[in-house]
Structure formats: structure tokens, C-alpha cells
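quick q for whoever's on today - can somebody do inverse folding on this one?? i tried earlier but teh output was garbage lol. C-alpha cells:
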């Protein structure tokens, strides 16, 4: 909300009360000069007139023009009918003219007569201290005493009177007698909680006692200059006025009070961002049974100290003190348009206050609807790390996909499934999903069909999505698939990627990652696939484990095949795209840390110095597609992953932004312990993206091209045959030795840990 909008809301609330008080005063005073003759009707018609003005003004504020015209017609007809029964038409016409001027004024300030300012004032009123509430109620009752004495005198003397002289004795007597009696009968013990039968009964009893005392003083005993009948007229008027005031308080504040009581036990939250997203979020949470919004935080200094929807706006610089005094348990980030750098700065500032932080999605996720409480989510790792993603090049995204037959292997995996989602948006002719896991294939196929469904729920007929159960190592099955559909583009994402698991199952990892890639690539070349893109990993650079070595060997296979294909016209363009960890993938530390935090810890970490690159899955998938579109054959593309991140720093940030503290030597009373468990087999402290130091730029700022050495196909084929023989016999030592010979950067650490090999060795010794 801008400063101008904030000022308008303040003016609206003030204008409402000014108009209400003005209408009340005008309704209780004669509009015509004393010398102009008036009728009995004139003494009471102003109250009805201004009630009608208020309703018409409210209708005008809400732009219900038809209601305004109907109200004017009915109002004019009513005045005309009333005038027909009175002889002093000049006086009545003058009265009508005066009320008409009032009507015009009401229309000019009609926006202020809406009930919403009245409703929004309930919160600040209920927020007053108990003593202040009692003073307000006492002041209202004192005003009612004065008003009812004046009204009683006016009714007795059949004309409006001015309080002067002896009349003030009647006022003083009402105040001196009524207020102590009301205090004794407990009218100020629970002012706004109750306004029903119990409160009215207390008012009745107090008014009876007061009526007796006031009647004795001014009717039985009497005061010179004050008509005795005032002692009998004023007490009933005061009873009605006080009872009506209590009923109005119940109507005005009752619902708000009950809501306040029911929400007082809810966790208190602050919304960071007083813009449209923050206001919509606050509105959505106004009836939420899980949390209570008590204010806003905003960087705009012009808004500090203001109010939005009855909630105060605080400066983030005083957040730490406010968190303690207001008992804030959570902060909701409602800044979807803020760049990643600014979000990181805000998150850094929130680390000191030790409160949980949740956030809204980005602007693209909010573009098609209002903010809802269901949009709130826990902070994802992309909210804590990295940089703003570069908008994708739509030409590159569609070049190898739009209108073509596309095949994705490993379609049910983390990267494969996201590739499929991105491919569907680029509108291929047919998308072939190749996956060995039945459940993963079923789930992805259903998701993509839902994504493709139109508003009527029918599948888009221009595109086919075909789920295919297959293993990339099954050459016959892969030939059947490619012969049937003749794909134009293949994205090969099928691989075993979990370092310790592959280390313990070395032969199977090499078969899938190396031989599976070889089978798929050769079948693709035989069936005229134009573009073949391998999804690789940064663990292929100077690997210390079987998984990384197998992926580097898969790259070398494609490099050798690309050299062979370059000699044939229309040959397949092979390329590979290398990047680091993707956030939220299977085996990622982020969901593991989040689960451990929910369980109260400890967070398990293999080494305090472990460092990794991170990228979101959608951005990685988009860059893979764009890199593949730039390939000329044999290219090794490397994605810009930004700055590497220490995993222990990531763990600390996740703990602190969940509202808890880290238990360490500096804070032994902390909530979550970070426990170092030791390096796992094949794990590296640091990952790299380049073997050499000669990356070349491309047309995309996030994609580089590396020059990596490889073996010619004739020589590589002999090495692969020897490796295949070792794999068939599960000779793990020979497999490791052959991998070291063909992948020169492979430096294994530690002993062999393959489960089958270890068990066979135990049996041989036994």
C-alpha cells in the first residue's frame, strides 16, 4: 500500500466519525430559524431524514446508483405526503430545502458513511487497556446523562431548550446519582464482553434505583427552576439510552471480541511486505484457524507507524524488539516481486530473531488468482541460496522440440520428469516417456495428462504422451521403440546418481551409466535421431568414485560417437550437459535436513568442509534443453552454477529460519545439533565443473563450453569390451583398474566396498 492510499484510509476512518457526529448533532437541533413557524413534525423529522441520508450515502459510496435514485424518489414522496397534512407549507418547504442541502453534503462524503470504517474500528477499541475501556464507557454514560436531562426538559417545555441556570442542577444530579449506582451494579466490569440479557438486567436494576433517587430529589423534594416532572421523565429516557448503548456495543464489538478471544491462543505472525500481496495474504488469514496476523513489516519508511486493515506497520530495523514484545512466532514473506538478492538480504536479517519463516510463491505463480493461505509454503532452498535465474531463450527451448517427436530416458527421475514438464510446454508432436520404474512412469504420465488438460478436462489432441516401460540396457526394446516412433530428439537422463549406493554396487552402476548410454546412443544413431543430449554431472570431473567415473566414461562414449557421426551426412549430433546438485532431487540433503529439523535433530553431516554447487531443477532442465539446441556435435556444455555453498552453513540457515537455534559449543542449550558422521565411500569435499581451465562462452550467459580430451572410437571400443567382460564376471577389482586406465582423472580413495565383492571374499576365506 502506498503512502497516499494509507492516508486515504486514515481519512476514511476519521471522515466516518465526523459524519456520524455531525448527523447526530443536526438531527437533535432545529434546522429552521426560531422566527419561522414550525410544526410538531419538524421537531422529530430531522432524525429520520439523516438516517435516510446515511443509507443513501452508503449506497452512493458502493456505486449502487439505482438504489440512490429509488431512495431519492421515496424520500421526496415521503416529504410531499407529510406536507399535505400540515398548513404551514412554507415552513415545510424550507425544512425540506435544508434537509436537501444536508442530502447533497451526505452524497459528497458518502464514502465516509460506509460501515466498514466502523467495523475496522472495533479492533483498536478492543485493544485498549481495561482501564481505558472503563473510562470510555463511563464517559459515554455521562454524556447520556446530560443528553437525557436536556431531552426531558425539551419534552416537558415543548421546545428545544438551552442548558443554563438551574437546569445545570438537573444535569449535576443525574451525574452524581447515576454513575456511582452504575459502578455499584457492575456495569463497568465487563463492558464489551456481554450485551445480552445479563447486561440489560443489570442496567434495569441500576436504572430503577437511580430513578427512585432522582425522582425523590427533583420531583418529591424539587429544585427551584427545574420542572418537577423532569424527575419522572429523565430516568426512563436514561434507561433506554444506556440499554441502547450496551446493545450497540454488542452489535459493534461482540463478533470482533469473540473472534479476538478465539484467536488469542493462535500463533502470532507478522507479514513482511505491506503491498498488494501482503494485504491479500492478511485478508486470507483473517479467519484462518491456525495463525493470527498482528502486523506488517515493510522497508518503506513512509509507511512506518501507519495502519492497514487495522494492523500496524513496523520497521524491520526494530524487528528483534518487536518479536519479543509481541510474542511473534512466525514471519510470512509476501514479497513475490523482490529479486533473489534482496530476498537473501531479508532472510539474513531474520536469522537473528529466531522465528520460523514461510513465504509466498513468485509472481508467475500468483498471476492467475488472488493470494490464498494454501499458497504459503516452507522456505525452499532456492529461497536461501543462489541467484536469480536468467529468463530462458524461447527460440532455443523450442528448436529441438516444437512439433517433433521427443524421447526422454529416465523420465521418472528428478531431472527426467522436469525435462518432460518443460518439453510439454514447448508443444512437441509426441513425447515418449522411457522409464524402468512402473510407479514413477504411472505418476509422471498422469501428471503430464493433467498438465495438458484444457478447461473442459479433455486431453489436448495435438500432442501425444506415450508411457513406455523399458531399460536403456535392453537394446532390443530400445530398437523397437525408436523404430516405431523415429524420434527427432533424445534426452538421456537415465542414470544411477547416488554416490554411496553406486560405490556399493559398482558393476551395476557402470552397466547402467556406461553401457546403457552406449546402447541408447547407438540405437539412436541407427534410427536417424537428429539430436542426442546426455545429462551429466560435475562428479565426472576428476572423479573419486565409481558414479562420477561412469558418467565421465559415458561422456567419452558420446564424444567418440560424435567424431564418428561427423564423417556421415545427416549424422546424429551428440552433446552432453554437465552441472552440479539440483535442489530437491532424490538423495538431496535439503529434504533430509528438513525432515531432521522436524524431528528435532540431529542434522547429520559427513564433513564440516563439504561444499557443493546448487541449482533448481526447473532452471537446470531449461538450460539442458537450451544447451542441446546449441550443439554442433561432441560438445561438452557446462552450466554456470553460481558460487559453491558450504553444506554446514546451509544447515545452520535452515535451522535458524525454522525458528530454532543450533546446539553447538557456543550455544549448548540450542535446539538442533549438527552432527558430523564422517565421509562416505567415494565422496569428495569439493566438486568441480571443468577438467581443464579453458571454458568458452556461448550465446547463453549461463552456459559455457568445455574442451575435454577423449579416446577415438576404435581404441575406446576395445577398452569397453574389456570392461564388459569384467562386468559380466563381476570382477570389481578389474573394473576399478580398467576405469582408472580409460578415465585418466579417476583417483579412487579407500578400499573396495562393493557388497557382492565383499561377501564373495568372505566366503572365499571361509
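ok took a stab at it. sequence:
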Amino acid at each position: 500500500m502506498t503512502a497516499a492510499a494509507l492516508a486515504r484510509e486514515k481519512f476514511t476512518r476519521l471522515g466516518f466519525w465526523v459524519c456520524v457526529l455531525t448527523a447526530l448533532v443536526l438531527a437533535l437541533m432545529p434546522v429552521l430559524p426560531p422566527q419561522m413557524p414550525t410544526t410538531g413534525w419538524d421537531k422529530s423529522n430531522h432524525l429520520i431524514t439523516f438516517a435516510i441520508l446515511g443509507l443513501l450515502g452508503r449506497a452512493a459510496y458502493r456505486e449502487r446508483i439505482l438504489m440512490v435514485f429509488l431512495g431519492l424518489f421515496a424520500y421526496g414522496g415521503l416529504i410531499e405526503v407529510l406536507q399535505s397534512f400540515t398548513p404551514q407549507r412554507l415552513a415545510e418547504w424550507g425544512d425540506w430545502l435544508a434537509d436537501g442541502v444536508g442530502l447533497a453534503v451526505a452524497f459528497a462524503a458518502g464514502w465516509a458513511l460506509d460501515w466498514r470504517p466502523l467495523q475496522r474500528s472495533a479492533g483498536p477499541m478492543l485493544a485498549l487497556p481495561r482501564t481505558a475501556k472503563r473510562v470510555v464507557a463511563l464517559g459515554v454514560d455521562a454524556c447520556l446523562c446530560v443528553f437525557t436531562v436536556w431531552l426531558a426538559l425539551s419534552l416537558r417545555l415543548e421546545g428545544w431548550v438551552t442548558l443554563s441556570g438551574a437546569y445545570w442542577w438537573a444535569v449535576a444530579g443525574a451525574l452524581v446519582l447515576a454513575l456511582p449506582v452504575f459502578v455499584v451494579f457492575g456495569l463497568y466490569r465487563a463492558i464489551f464482553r456481554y450485551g445480552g440479557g445479563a447486561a440489560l438486567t443489570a442496567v434495569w436494576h441500576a436504572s430503577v434505583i437511580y430513578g427512585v433517587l432522582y425522582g425523590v430529589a427533583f420531583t418529591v423534594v424539587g429544585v427551584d427552576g427545574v420542572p418537577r416532572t423532569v424527575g419522572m421523565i429523565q430516568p426512563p429516557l436514561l434507561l433506554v439510552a444506556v440499554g441502547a448503548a450496551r446493545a450497540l456495543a454488542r452489535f459493534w464489538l461482540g463478533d470482533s471480541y469473540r473472534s479476538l478471544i478465539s484467536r488469542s491462543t493462535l500463533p502470532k505472525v507478522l507479514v513482511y511486505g505491506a503491498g498488494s500481496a501482503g494485504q491479500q495474504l492478511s485478508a486470507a488469514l483473517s479467519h484462518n484457524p491456525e495463525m493470527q496476523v498482528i502486523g506488517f513489516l515493510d522497508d518503506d519508511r513512509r509507511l512506518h507507524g501507519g495502519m492497514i486493515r487495522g494492523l500496524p506497520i513496523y520497521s524491520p530495523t526494530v524487528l528483534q524488539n518487536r518479536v519479543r514484545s509481541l510474542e511473534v512466532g512466525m514471519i510470512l514473506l509476501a514479497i513475490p516481486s523482490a529479486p533473489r538478492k534482496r530476498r537473501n538480504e531479508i532472510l539474513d536479517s531474520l536469522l537473528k530473531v529466531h522465528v520460523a519463516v514461510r513465504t509466498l510463491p513468485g509472481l508467475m505463480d500468483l498471476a492467475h488468482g488472488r493470494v490464498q493461505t494454501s499458497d504459503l509454503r516452507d522456505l525452499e532452498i532456492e529461497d536461501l541460496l543462489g541467484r536469480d535465474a536468467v529468463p530462458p531463450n524461447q527460440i532455443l527451448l523450442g528448436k529441438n522440440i516444437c512439433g517433433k517427436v521427443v524421447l526422454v530416458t529416465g523420465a521418472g527421475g528428478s531431472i527426467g520428469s522436469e525435462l518432460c514438464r518443460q518439453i510439454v510446454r514447448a508443444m512437441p508432436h509426441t513425447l515418449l516417456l522411457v522409464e524402468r520404474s512402473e510407479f514413477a512412469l504411472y505418476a509422471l504420465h498422469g501428471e503430464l495428462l493433467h498438465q495438458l488438460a484444457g478447461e473442459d478436462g479433455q486431453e489436448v489432441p495435438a500432442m501425444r504422451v506415450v508411457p513406455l516401460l523399458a531399460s536403456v540396457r535392453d537394446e532390443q526394446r530400445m530398437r523397437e521403440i525408436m523404430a516405431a516412433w523415429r524420434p527427432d530428439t533424445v534426452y538421456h537422463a537415465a542414470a544411477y546418481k547416488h554416490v554411496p549406493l553406486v560405490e556399493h554396487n559398482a558393476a551395476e552402476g557402470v552397466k547402467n551409466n556406461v553401457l546403457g548410454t552406449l546402447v541408447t546412443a547407438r540405437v539412436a544413431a541407427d534410427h536417424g535421431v537428429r539430436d542426442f543430449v546426455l545429462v551429466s554431472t560435475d562428479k565426472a570431473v576428476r572423479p573419486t568414485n565409481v558414479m562420477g567415473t561412469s558418467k565421465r566414461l559415458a561422456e567419452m562414449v558420446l564424444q567418440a560417437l560424435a567424431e564418428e557421426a561427423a564423417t556421415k551426412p545427416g549424422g546424429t549430433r551428440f552433446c552432453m550437459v554437465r552441472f552440479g546438485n539440483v535442489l530437491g532431487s532424490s538423495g538431496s540433503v535439503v529434504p533430509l535436513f528438513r525432515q531432521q529439523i522436524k524431528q528435532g535433530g540431529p542434522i547429520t553431516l559427513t564433513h564440516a568442509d563439504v561444499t557443493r554447487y546448487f541449482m533448481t531443477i526447473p532452471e537446470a532442465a531449461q538450460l539442458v534443453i537450451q544447451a542441446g539446441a546449441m550443439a554442433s556435435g561432441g560438445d561438452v556444455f557446462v552450466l554456470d552454477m553460481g558460487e559453491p555453498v558450504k553444506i554446514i552453513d546451509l544447515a545452520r540457515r535452515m535451522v535458524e529460519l525454522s525458528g530454532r537455534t543450533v546446539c553447538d559449543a557456543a550455544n549448548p542449550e540450542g535446539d538442533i545439533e549438527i552432527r558430523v558422521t564422517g565421509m562416505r565411500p567415494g565422496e569428495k569435499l569439493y566438486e568441480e565443473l571443468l577438467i581443464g581451465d579453458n571454458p568458452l562462452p556461448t550465446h547463453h550467459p549461463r552456459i559455457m563450453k568445455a574442451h575435454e580430451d577423449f579416446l577415438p572410437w576404435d581404441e575406446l571400443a576395445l577398452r569397453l569390451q574389456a570392461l564388459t567382460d569384467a562386468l559380466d564376471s563381476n570382477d570389481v577389482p578389474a573394473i576399478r583398474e580398467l576405469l582408472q586406465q580409460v578415465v585418466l582423472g579417476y583417483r579412487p580413495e579407500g578400499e573396495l566396498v562393493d557388497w557382492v565383492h565383499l561377501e564373495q571374499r568372505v566366503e572365499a576365506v571361509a
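fwiw Residues 187 and 236 are 17 Å apart (CA to CA). also Residues 26-44, 59-63, 106-115, 362-375 have pLDDT under 50 and may be disordered. so keep that in mind when u check it
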